Amino acid sequence: MKNWKLWISSLFLLILLFFVFAGPSLPFVDSDLKETGVIKTEKGSFLLPPFAPREGYPLGSNHKGVDILSLIIMGAKETLTIVVLVIVIRYVLAIPLAIGGFYSKLLEKILQGWQQLFSFMPPIFFVTFFVTLPLIFFSKDRGLWVILILAVLETGRVAEIILQNMKETKKRPYIEAGIVAGGTPFRMFKNYYMPVVIPHLIILIINDLGRVLFLLAQLGIVHVYVTHKFITNEWGAYEVVNTSLAWPTMFSTITADIFTYQWIPFSVIAAIAVTIYSFNMFADGLQKFFELKYRTSRADL
Amino acid sequence: MVLRSIFQQTLLWLITIILFLSLLLLPRSTTYQTGAGGMYVSASYNYSVDAHLKQFKDFFQYIKDKKGLGTVNNGYSLTENVWRTFQKSMLITIPALLLGFFLGVAKGIFDYRIRNRRGRLFGVSTTRFFLSIPDLFLIIALQLLIMEGFEAGLLPHIIVYGSDQPSVVLLDIIFLSIYPLFYIANITFFSIRDEQGMDYIRTAFSKGTSSFKVLYRHVLKNCFVKILSHTNTITLYTLSNLFIVEFLTNYRGAAFFFYETVMSPKYFMVGQDFTIGVYPAAGYVILFTAVIFLAKVLSVIGRGLVSPLERNE
């Protein structure tokens, strides 16, 4: 077990994937997310939701009497879909920008401008502010807008990291050897740069998965969710409600819950923490794996 | 070199403010499409450059007329109010940043010195561990622990929610400094490791300099260039986290009020216009970006002081 981090985190992530796809059909998961109004105990007393952790509710229930464990498992798919979408959009933009920036001065300037501009905006600050614009608030595709904003927010940062990595590679002696040997720019790119950049990129992407999930959790605390719906209430006004199952939505009542119904915020944050930790551990493990494979690790003097 | 980058950052800061203001002053008039009985069907939004420009004109006219951002109910002028809440936020942000930075460097050095000795488990592995779990989890867990600890009679009564209690200020500083501390510790550890085996270290050792002196006088000086280039990341993160911490501890600082001014409505009526508090929001935008700007300038000056000539690789 030389690389235990890789093994343990892979196991964690496999379990997570298992829950995402097979979760709804597991015996202990209530896939209908049934609401329970009241429970009669053996002593004859009545319990009102939210129920503390007890038989049938291993992690307790929420305010509507829905089992939290089932909620977390059923919400995993949606949460991870959002995270993956953000990452896909971010890297589809960032990778061409970084590679373009490596070869063209103009694109490099654009990239740096992008990165510098967003480095003046705290992410939560910017997102909270952006989603309230009527254009986005009422949009039918609000979810997509929010995902796009989350993606663009750090595109500059990741593009810059990839570009730096390529520039550092350029300084290494073997690149010169490749040029001397008569490598065309395309061959240099494919055979000399890519093998170094790709492992680096994979680690970056996995670390970023954790970062995005973390940002989503933070946004959940300040009531910014990816999707929402409008429902009329009894006074004829429209209430903005959340119908999504994504994990961060369970933070909506955190400031009240933390005093009395601690299990609601705690189970959710624990689920998020474990997922983020597995992503980060997986990235660490992969880094070690690549270092061992390509013998790039530095000896400790 | 230093002056030039300060000039560049100032320019960028101004561009950011202008961008933010134009987003803030985006005309927010919405047209509602209604169905039978005035039921909400959808809403559309029409942008026009003229309306946007008019918003800008009104904004500057207002500031000119009121000689500030206007007044609020509680007797303070809005400018004072924004400034007061901002100071409150800075009361927790600045100590948290300093604490995170210096303790982070200390932890990084500790991690490095202990890496091959007994107790190395407390070294770089703990740093990696705390970097990998979200600090949100630590914050909530710590709050719960303090409350449970009091109920079990293990801890004295510590107030974890509120706006004026010293204990909350202290806790907020701790909450905010968690991530910067471990982030800087990680950077410090790896930059010290990168210096290993450099020629100047061998020279220093061969002259009989003690390892303590080599580390503090020679190695760290070179590391600071790298560490200081990360100050922007931690400032940005801490400001972002300020929203969460203020929200979770009910601390009424600038982030809390900024959130209140731009928050999306929980209810709306058909025909309602989506106005936000443009004036306080503008004040907060300028102040928050100013903090980031200052952090950048300090880092540039710091780097200039530590190494007047950046080493060419």
TrEMBL record, chain A:
InterPro entries: MetI-like (IPR000515), MetI-like_sf (IPR035906)
Transmembrane spans: 80-104, 116-138, 144-163, 197-226, 263-283
Keyword Membrane: yes
Location of the ABC transmembrane type-1 domain: 76-287
Membrane topology, as annotated: Multi-pass membrane protein
Keywords carried by this UniProt record: Membrane, Transmembrane, Transmembrane helix, Transport
Family: Belongs to the binding-protein-dependent transport system permease family.
UniProt protein name: ABC transmembrane type-1 domain-containing protein
Species, as recorded: Neobacillus rhizosphaerae
Lineage, broadest ranks: Bacteria, Bacillati, Bacillota, Bacilli, Bacillales
TrEMBL record, chain B:
Membrane topology: Multi-pass membrane protein
UniProt subcellular location: Cell membrane
Domain of life: Bacteria
Positions of the ABC transmembrane type-1 domain: 86-297
Listed transmembrane segments: 90-109, 129-147, 167-192, 236-259, 279-301
Keyword match Amino-acid biosynthesis: no
Gene3D superfamilies associated with the record: MetI-like (1.10.3720.10)
Keywords: Cell membrane, Membrane, Transmembrane, Transmembrane helix, Transport
Family indicated by similarity: Belongs to the binding-protein-dependent transport system permease family.
Annotated PANTHER family: ABC-TYPE DIPEPTIDE_OLIGOPEPTIDE TRANSPORT SYSTEM, PERMEASE COMPONENT, INNER MEMBRANE ABC TRANSPORTER
Protein name from the UniProt record: ABC transmembrane type-1 domain-containing protein
Phylogenetic classification of the source organism: Bacteria, Bacillati, Bacillota, Bacilli, Bacillales
